[in-house]
Structure formats: C-alpha cells, structure tokens
Amino acid sequence: MIQNSGMAKHSLRRLLGLLPTLFMLITVAFFLMRAAPGGPFDSERVLPPEIEANLEARYHLDEPLLQQYFRYLGQVVTLDFGPSFQYKDWTVNELMAQAMPVSLTVGLAAMLLAFFLGTLIGVASAMRQNTGVDYSLMGLAMLGISIPSFVIAPILILLLAVYAGWLPAGGWDWSVSSMVLPVITLAFPVTAYIARLTRGSMIEVLKSNFIRTARAKGLPESMVIRRHALRPALLPVISYLGPAIAGMISGSVVIERIFSIPGLGSYFVQGALNRDYTLVMGIVVFYGVLIIVLNFLVDLIYAWLNPKIRYDEND
Amino acid sequence: MPTLLQKFSLLIIAALSVGACNNENQEQLSGDRGRHARPVELILTEDGRPDPSVLAQGQELHRDNGEEPQTLDPHRAEGLASEHILRDLFEGLTAESPEGRIVPGAAIRWNISRDGKTYTFYLRRDALWSNGDPVTAEDFVYGLRRSADPVTASNYAKVLLPIENAAEVLSGDLPPSELGVSALEEFTLQIRMRDPTPYFLALLNHPVTFPVHRASVEQHGPVFSRPGNLVSNGAFILKDWLIRSRIELVRNENYWDAENIIIEKVFYYPFEDQSHALKQFRAGELHWTSSVPNNQFKWLQKHYPDELVISPWLGSYYFGFNLQREPFIENPELRLALTLALDRELLTEKVTQFGEQPSFNLVPPGIMDYVSPLPEWAEWTQDERNAEALRLYAQAGYSEENPLRFEIRYDSGQNNKKMALAASSLWKQVLGVQATLVNEEFKAFLQTREQKVLTQVFRAGWISDYADAYSFLNLFRTGHGGNDYGYSNTLYDSLLDEIAAERIPSRRRRLMFEAERILLAETPFIPVYTYVTKRMVNPRLTGWQSNVMDHHYSKDMFFLKAVSDEPAPVSTGETGMSTDTGLEASGTDQPVGGKNEESVAPGVDEEATITREKDGTSSGGAEA
Fold first, then answer.
1. Does B275 touch chain A (CB under 8 A)?
2. pLDDT over 90 for what percent of chain B?
3. pTM score, two decimals?
4. I want to staple B107 with a disulfide (CB 3.0 to 4.6 A). Which of B121, B157, B289, B378 is the partner?
C-alpha cells in the first residue's frame, strides 16, 4: 500500500507525458505527410484546373499550410478527424470505428492463442529438456519464427480452403470461420516466440532453490510448476507482450492483405500511398495513443508481478 | 484476470471447432473444388430469353471489383471500382449492350439537331426510382446541375465539359442553373452543347451524368449514398455496404425491365491482392475476378482454359519522351531509332505474356469508325527495323565509343519494372544504349513526370473512358494536363480544334487520321502494346461479352445450371450430387463456349444472342 502512492504519482506523470508526445507526433506526421510528393487528387487522369480548384476548396487544401495545420489541431482536440480523401462517402472516424473492432478481434484472439499455446509448449519443452519432445517442439518453434506469414498464409489457404474447403479463403463477415485462418497465421510466429521465451526462463526457474525446496517437500511436479514456477517464468513473456499486443491489434498489413480483412493496417499503408492525409493522420494519432498506453500498462503489470521492481517517489 | 483469459481461450477453441463446420453456404457457390462445374447448354425461349429450365437455382453473383469504390455518389465517382457498381445501381440516358454498343437507357430515343449541338432525349415513361417515384427529365436536370456545381467537387466533371456553359459553371463563373440542360416536358430533356461532340452519347453512361433522386439527396446530404438512404433507378439497389469487405446489391423490383433481370443479388468484393482473388475463385467463392496475377498465364491457361478470359481493352501502353530535356529535344530521328529498336513481339510474349497486341501507333483498335495510320516500318521485319535504327543512331552522332545515355523512369507495380528492364536491354543489345532504370512510387512518379525536369524516357499509357480516338489524341495537345511529353505543334493543335468542331463523321475521321499520322512521324512517344483485360470467370456465368470498354452490367448476366445439377432420371428425391449417375451423356466432355454459341444463335435477334468469347480466339499469341 505504501508503494502505491508512489505508483499513482508515477502513473499520473506518465499519463501527462502523453500529451506533449502526441503533439509532437501529430506535428511531425502532418508535415511529413505534406512533404511527400504528389497529392490526393493526382492520378494519371489529370484534372482540369477548375475541377482541381473545386476539390482543393472542398478539402481546404487551398489554404496556407500553417492554417491547415492549426485547423487540423483544432479538429483533433474535438476528436474529429475529418473526411477521408480516398473513401469519400465516409469520415475518418467512421472508417476507424469500422476497422478498429476488426483489428482488435483478430489481434486479441491471436494474442490469446499465442499466449496459451506458447506457454504450454514452452513449459512442456522445459519439463522434458533435451529430450526428443523438447527438440521437436523447439524445432517447430524455430520454423514458426523463421517462416514469414506471407508464406504460411497461402499454404494454409490452399490446404484448408481451396483443397479441403473447410474454411473461407479470405474475406471478413464477422463469422468465426472467417477469423480462423488469419488468427492462426497471425498467432504462429508469436506462439513460437513465446514458447522459446517460456522454455528458457522456465529452465532457469526450475533450477532455483525455492523449486528444489518445493520438490523436496514432496509436492507433485504439476503443482510445482503451476504454483511456484510459472509466475516467475512468465516475467520475460509479460514484458514482451506489451509491444507484441500493440503490434498485433494495430493490424498486420500482410495478414490483412492476404485475407482481405478490413482492418487498420492496410488503411495506414493504402492511406499513405493514396495521400489520404486525414486517414493517415487519424491512424497515426490512434497508434500513438495505443502504444503509449500499452507500454504504460505493461510497466504496471510488470511491477505488480515482480516484487523486485517498485517505483519510488524519487524515481 | 485468469477467468477472463480462460473465457477467451474457450472462445478460441469454440472458434476453431465451429469454423470447421460452418461452410455450407460456400458449398453451393462452387461446383467442385479446383475445377468448376460445366454449364448445361443454353436454350433460349422464342422471345430470346434463357429458358427457365437451364437456369441455376441460386442467381447470386460474386464479383471481385479490384478495389474499394471511392464513393457511390455517382457525381463524385472516379475509378473503375465505383463505376462498375454505379452502372448496376443507376441508369443513364444511354446504356451499353453486352458487346459495348450504345443502346437506349433511361431515354428511349433521342434527336440530334443538324448542327450537332442540341440533343433532345425522350425518356421512358415507365421508369421508376427504387422508391416508386417516376424518373423524370427534372431528375436529369437536377443530376447534371449537381454534377457541375463547384460545391459537389466532382473529380470527373470533365465529362460534362462539352455541354454549353459547363466550364463556366465548374469554375464558378456562372450558377449551375445556367448549364445547358433543361426539361422541356415531364419526360423530355434537352441538352445544348458547346461543340458538336460525336461521342457524347457514349459519355452519357458515365456515372457523372446520372440522375439522382433529389428528395433523398436533399434529405440525407453527404450520407445519401449509404444503404437504406440511396434511391437509385438502375437494375439493382444498394442493400448493404461493409466497407472494404463487400457491397451487396439486390434486384430493383421497381426497375422498368425487372422481369427480365435474372440475377437476384450481386456482391462486390475489393481484392487488393490478385493471387488472393484467384484462390477465392478456385475455392468457388468468386465468379468473376477483376484481373489475374501476372506471370501465371501458362499455369492458368493449362489448368483453367475455360475460366481464363482475355480480351482487348481500349488502352495503350507506351514510353514517353520528355521533349524539353536533352538528348531528345529536336531529335525525332534519335527518338525513331529507339522506337524501331524495340522488339514488340518479344516484349508482349515474354514480359506482358497475356496476349497483349504489339502496337505501332497511339490509338488502339476497337473504336468503331476509326482505323489508325500505321507507320511504314510496321511492315518491316525486326532485323530491318534494327538496321534502320542503327543507321539513325549513328546519324545522330552516337556510337559504341560514345553511347547514348539516359534514364528510364517508371512507377512500381504491375509489369512496369520488367518492361523498363527489357526495353533497356533491347536498346543496349541493338544500339549499345546505356539506359539506367529509376523507380518511383506512383504519386511521386506522376509529379516528376508532370514537372518535365527530371524525366527523359518514362512509362506512360492511356485507357480511354469512351470509345473515341480524340481521347487519345488530345493528350498531346499543347498545355494539356496529360501532356507530360512537352509536345507542342501548332498544326497538330489546330487539327485537334477542327476535330472538336467537326460534326461530319467521315471528315472528322480523316482529321483524326491526319493528326495521328503527324504524331507518329514526330515520335514523342514509343508505342509498345495495347492493353488486354484478363480475368477468371465462372463458366456457368453467361450473358456477358467481352468489349473494349470492359463494361459489364450485372443485369445482362445469369447462371446456367451445372451439368451435375441435372436431375437424375430415376428420382431419389435428392438432387444429383454424385457425378456418375444421372448425367446427360452429351454434357460432360464437351467444351464450353464456342459450341454453345452456334447452337444458340440462329433465329434470335442480335440483342439476345448470348455469346461467350473464348480467350484463345480473341487474343493472338495466346499459346506463347
């Protein structure tokens, strides 16, 4: 309880720090985006000047850049990210509101799958260290880490969708069957990574004195693992989870493209290619907030799990 | 926390297990996996409609549309993805037949005044909006004015420019009410033109000219194009729009020809990845793809000969010269040398691979009433061309010791890199030219090209919105926004002005021929090939035809039954899913396509003839 006041102050400071970080992010992203050659209305079909003028007026691109910048800042404060240039019937808020749940669902499902499966494999390997089971599991994990998802995905599609016909080859209709392949593909490398992390730290933990004590007292091995070894063994995994979650729920461009999933990742890339200024900016702000908040949460969880780390007031 | 995690893990397990059994609805889309079911032979009734006995049970069409449409507001539409859907949703004054001829749409007939400057359209009196309101001339007046209104900020309003006062309205100098469009009577529309524009009727099936339902536009404002709000006058209405997932259209029961529309639902999907679309097609989930992956021609030709459809498209691929930068200023002989030295047969066979036609001029074939001039060297062998190229090259002062050096600039994507690489190596081989490749991201490339400062030789091309040679020729007008060549020729410009003002077809044709001839002689560009469209189509999908505009209305299409769907002679109550019983002996081994056409055509009028152009016949060099 005593440490908690230190933690609360620390949290508040971190949260306040979010604002200048975001402001810098918006400023840099805004001017970088505008510095890119070409504009949202450039295409091989060149617009007659009067039509281009009408378009620029509609989107305020005819104003001086600084004025546009302050207009944008004003919008962000009211959480209005403006109309999209590319998807003209929609505002950026609507687009993100549609894409975010998709990315969130796929990302979280994959993360949970990876976490449980990875931990399980890691523990199993650690318990049978240097046996055939260990080698084959870790070999598999190595494959999982080294084979990129743009290789795994088409193989899975060919096997399970084209030949077997069990699952749709892609697309997204919120049905569970349309989620299975992307979730597995996305979870694959993370599972492998978590398995290796868990195995390593588990082996370390199993050698420590308190485990020897537990065993000496005659506790069954399953109890030793669950009660005593798992929590310390998961510490490195937890610190890996923060960035991993941020990466996964913010949408994987590769996965989204291969499975035609309407998530955030491909908006970001397509938005940049189309010079869809407002859409890109909206996603940048969202990513910024997400990563800052997630890193903060991981710090908190880490401190809570690991008694060695506490934030004191002089921190 | 653990309980939450446990719940989620259960969810995942449930997901995995449900996923395995939740696929009945795909099953019905596909015949058998990998190979599509063959269709039965088409039988037409006396009035030219397909006989109900040959139609498949479900008439749901799943189309890959290439990308997410930018908008379903017809007046702000640009890009093929929007236009395909909007042509299903709306009906303009004119429409197109499956083979691409201009046919009456919302207007049942029209008069064109002697000077070609006044068009009077007589609208169908039985046409209704999807909410039951009649479609009147006022709707077209409102639509055209809205389209030209600067506030709408239409990207494609240039289509309207031939209309009287359109330019002034677009630039805000005149109010939209001054546009040369008026409703003479409830069902009579008059459009007055600035210039006689012989291709005007073809422009009228561009969404920018479509009518919109005034009351719903005014009621819903910027969201009038959403499902539930959008009132349309075409064969289909907008049912659902899951952005970047799918757009669902259903048959418009208020459409004047609804009883002849067989397709009940159309689903449009945006596939950014061609190989993914192909996998979906192979899994039977798509009936129509927007394209096919490059480099898979041989494989597709071998495994899907009936599904792969290739046909000429109204577009040219070429390289441009920057005529404002050395070494190409005032140097037509050198430009011709480079043009001659490109072995187009080789490029189309090895690089583009899909039966693209080598081209020697600007305007691609397929435009009615116009045949492009061919340069003299088009008849030569490649060796003769190379010899002449070498002579011109030497004459321009270049040699092995003093080779010509320049940059080829192109944008990433498609086959551009391969094409630039192949061209540079051919030039090196034949002439000893040292060309370096410069790759740029698309928008950056467009800007560089337009600025005409860095470019020397660059990737260029044009796919026309309407079937008229003027669309291509106008690109080389002095000061035209698409003139990235810096080409300027007063004689050529005055010819273009004459073409724009000319209303007698034969004279206009001669002027266009002359203009293109001048262009070819001056060589501001290097013709390479004419585009083709390449896509996979389910063999049971019938009623459409290849056309150079690549416009395919869903209302013309329908599904034939699969051969295996034929009911078994001894009925067991089940439809025949097994392939070894109940098959008509004629069905299984026969190729689709050609055979069917002949058995159908006699005695039916041209409109109703259902043909399916087979890939091989429509494109030369297909065996390569």
1. yes
2. 63
3. 0.81
4. B121
